[in-house]
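Appendix B. Chain record.
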Amino acid sequence: MIQEKPAILWLRQDLRLADNPALQAAANNPFFAVYIWDEQDPWSPGGASRWWLHKSLNALKLSLRERGVQLIFKRGNPLRILKALTQEIKACGVYWNRCYEPYAINRDKEIKSYLTNAGIPCQSFNGSLLAEPWEIQTKTKGPYQVFTPFWKVLQTLSVPKPSPIPDLHGWKTPVSSNAIEEWGFKPTTWGQGLEKAWQPGERGAWERLSRFLEEEIETYASKRDYPSENGTSHLSPYLHWGELSPRQIWHQVSSFHGVETLPFLRQLGWREFSYHLLFHFPELPSKSLRSSFDRFPWEVNTDALKAWQTGKTGYPLVDAGMRELWHTGAMHNRVRMVVASFLVKHLLLPWQKGEEWFWDTLVDADLANNAASWQWVAGCGADAAPYFRIFNPTLQSQKFDLKGTYIKQWVPELKALDSPYIHSPWQAPPEVLEKAGINLGTTYPFPIVDHTFARIRALQALKTLSY
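Structure tokens predicted for this chain:
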């Protein structure tokens, strides 16, 4: 029954109308939605993510306005803001979908405690995972630390079908709001590439999913490792910001093609596994899960870090990936593994440095996935890749970008160089370099570290650890 007092929908990483459990609960009353920019969050979204958030919130505001619902913006401490709002409008309830980051869990517990003690109904929901992190346990009732058995259990669960957009009844009394344009989310150093590459918002998410299902999923397994191919889904930022729910993707993909979709669904499983790890091991973003790595002899080399960040390592595939990241806010998954391996194993720089850079430059920067994946590559996390497995960036380039198509797109100073030398310009004869207009050390750098030397150094560093 529609009540006279309004409810509050507190939006976070669930910026959609369909299959939104908190919105469904709020819609039982006249309600308005609020997005709070939490300035206390230690993992506040980075630059590329803020660009996405700005676009997505404006798109959602328009969708809600079309249905007569206000979306207001507030900046500051969420507890204080929700206290003020509930008192101002005499709210009949506050509803939100759960976040699983350690800071968010503690913050939300405090808010729920306050609302309960104040006699204000409140409820949180699972709006961003296929299963709650505590619902999948080993036989000894502990958390999984290896992906494959976790994935086997996840596949046995019944994933609820997504729900449609309910009838919405907006609270008619205007509620004061900040101007999101004053939050400074638009990037000052880059942004045009983001504009060309992405369409944030729920509508853009469904267009991207539809295109993937109609044109690309049948070749996903065969093309996903080749960065010059349009072989991946490009759904990760939409999933991170909740413009699509994992339940929507799971059911759309499963019903559309069946068993051949398992390689893609497995990627959803890795995302679930990452949240499982973050929930049970809250220090995941800052501390190696394998305690032996606390003694690893990491290097301190600001010049090498800068070369890696700016795509000037002298290894074309690494440089192409880092430049793609800076230009588009994304990077092909195979190349992500190569550039991450290069940072921690060729340069012996701490994986946290890479995690921080990705956090600032990825539009899909997700705390759980980012931390778990960096630890996997570094060899110090759950289900970690063996540390002695060190990607050779030249061989990876030859295998997955044979003609250098991807490299030529993002490292244009090498566009006149063909295979095999485009994978290792330092091995090209002088006349080949001259014909291609390349002056090593001037127009393109020499490798900042020799692969053979780096591999031996990394293996020697590994020997200093005890398991």
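Further analysis of this model is presented in Appendix C.
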